[in-house]
Specification:
binds phosphoric acid mono(formamide)ester; alpha/beta; about 40% helix; about 300 residues; 2 domains; binds norvaline; four-stranded parallel β-sheet; about 15% strand; 12 helices; Rossmann fold
């Protein structure tokens, strides 16, 4: 069976844990290596990862590039406006057939969850979701790695808080909370709470998830505070109105003081006004390590998709 990586909800937790263990081992072994040096054994030698970004990306693009290179493979990044798909009228089915003939895995960042599913149906190679309107699974799995690396504890023993919009990144954090069984407090304004589908997913699964409208209550006792931009790339909203609703949901020093003393701040980046500069550039902020770790975790995600996880 092909191992796709589309949504954390659909991946067995034992596989997610295996990915994290592999990433930890591989990161240790790379301490003295340069970015483009290849891992011993070159496990993905000869393999081609095709990537396509229908929306902007800096980190995901760079980290998948380095990830496949370090495993001995190569990558080709397609520009959606240069394909016949969409404007040129070529179908997903035919595009997928060609991708499967020449590539060994396909990483897609898209503004359509349906498109991911349709590609999955027609590809005979694994597909990886590099961010969709409903989730950002590679980001959150990597963030769990970062949290456990810093806190030196399994995430199930930590209190995680989210301050911000109910978006794709939060959806993946919710799925992770259910899979890894960690406590997750969500703080969002009244009209920006997780949607019905997500709420019913939470309800159907044994969970430790609590939703608040007060940011201070949300972060009491938190070991980690996550945030993300109020306006996401897929957001077609009145931006001024939305930003106004989030005024109180800003991570500043005062809010950090309600969390544990050694609480860390994480943000997938790019950032907006949801975090104060003083917090962002403080010792508690681990955002650069967070971004770096994506290479290590995505390498193990690739190995998982290629059926080569040790
Ligand atoms: N966090 C993240 O996915 O960043 P990019 O949008 O730059 O890839
Ligand atoms: N929620 C953000 C994440 C960017 C990495 C977005 O979708 O734009």
């Amino acid at each position: 069976m092909i191992k796709h990586f589309i949504d954390l909800k659909d991946i067995p937790v034992k596989d997610l844990k295996k990915i994290l263990i592999d990433a930890k081992k591989r990161k240790k072994l790379r301490k003295k290596k340069n970015n483009l040096e290849i891992d011993k054994e070159s496990p993905l030698k000869g393999k081609l990862l095709i990537q396509m970004f229908e929306k902007s990306s800096l980190r995901t693009r760079l980290t998948f590039y380095l990830a496949i290179k370090q495993l001995g493979g190569s990558t080709l990044t397609l520009r959606p406006d240069e394909l016949h798909l969409s404007k040129g009228g070529e179908s997903i089915e035919d595009t997928a057939k060609i991708l499967s003939n020449f590539g060994n895995a396909f990483m897609l960042r898209t503004d359509s969850d349906k498109k991911l599913e349709e590609f999955k149906r027609h590809l005979s190679i694994p597909i990886i979701n590099g961010l969709s309107p409903s989730s950002h699974p590679t980001q959150i799995l990597s963030d769990i790695f970062t949290v456990e690396e810093i806190k030196k504890k399994p995430i199930s023993k930590l209190n995680i808080a989210w301050i911000g919009d109910s978006n794709n990144v939060l959806n993946s954090l919710i799925a992770a909370s259910i899979k890894f069984s960690f406590k997750l407090n969500i703080g969002s304004p009244r009209n920006y709470k997780p949607n019905k589908k997500i709420l019913s997913y939470i309800k159907k699964n044994k969970n430790r998830i609590f939703i608040y409208e007060d940011p201070k209550k949300t972060v009491i006792g938190a070991d980690v505070i996550f945030s993300d931009k109020v306006i996401s790339m897929n957001d077609k909203v009145n931006k001024i109105k939305k930003l106004k609703c989030f005024k109180k949901f800003r991570v500043d020093k005062n809010l950090m003081n309600y969390a544990k003393r050694d609480c860390i701040f994480l943000h997938c980046l790019p950032r907006g006004k949801e975090v104060d500069e003083k917090v962002f550039s403080s010792k508690q902020s681990k955002v650069w390590l967070q971004a770096l770790n994506r290479v290590h975790v995505q390498k193990s995600i690739l190995l998982y998709c290629f059926g080569k996880l040790r």
